[in-house]
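During the no-cost extension, the postdoctoral fellow (Dr. R.K.) reprocessed legacy sequence entries with the updated structure-token encoder. One reprocessed record is reproduced below for audit purposes.
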Amino acid sequence: MLLQDILIGFAFYLIIEGLVYALAPSFLVAMAKLLPTISEGALRATGLIAVMLGVGLVWLIRG
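Re-encoded structure tokens follow.
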């Protein structure tokens, strides 16, 4: 069950990533150009917030 959930999560990740590349490639390039201008601390904080939101959503859904 856990392995199946992990694989489904990875599949959804691939679907979302693929949609971004397919539907908004110019937006993705613009965001990649902006990344060097954002401080490491801001990127780290954003990543940690995303992780916490993801864990919270999984906890609520699987609760």
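The mean pLDDT is 93. The two ends are 15 Å apart (CA to CA). The remaining legacy entries will be reprocessed before the final report is submitted.
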